[in-house]
Specification:
A hairpin with a 2-residue loop joins strand 2 and strand 3. The chain has a three-stranded antiparallel sheet with strand order 1-3-2. It is of the alpha+beta class. The model has no long low-confidence stretch (mean pLDDT 91). The protein has four helices and three strands; from the N terminus they run H-E-H-H-H-E-E. Helix 1 crosses helix 2 and helix 1 crosses helix 4.
């Protein structure tokens, strides 16, 4: 049974995003990232559909947006076009 109040920590989301992008050849669309991270972390449908306090989306979508933003700010990924994320190669 899953705990509806448990959300992965931001670092867990960030690690899962990077693993997913690596497995996808370094680039993927937002929806694909969100779906594959949810699957990899075995998140319940109930958790994935829980609305945030402002009713503008789900808590999961909000947390994933922030995880991607932090990865971008750290220079680990870029957002070359709307809805597309790419690993920065060094």
């Amino acid at each position: 049974m899953s705990n509806i109040n448990y959300f992965p920590m931001k670092s867990e989301l960030m690690n899962a995003i990077m693993k997913m992008l690596n497995a996808s050849g370094g680039v993927a669309r937002t929806a694909e990232i969100d779906a594959k991270v949810a699957e990899a972390l075995n998140l319940s449908e109930e958790l994935l559909t829980l609305e945030d306090d402002t009713s503008t989306g789900t808590v999961y979508s909000y947390k994933m947006r922030w995880a991607r933003t932090e990865l971008r700010l750290k220079g680990m990924i870029t957002n070359p076009s709307r809805g597309v994320w790419k690993i920065v190669t060094m």
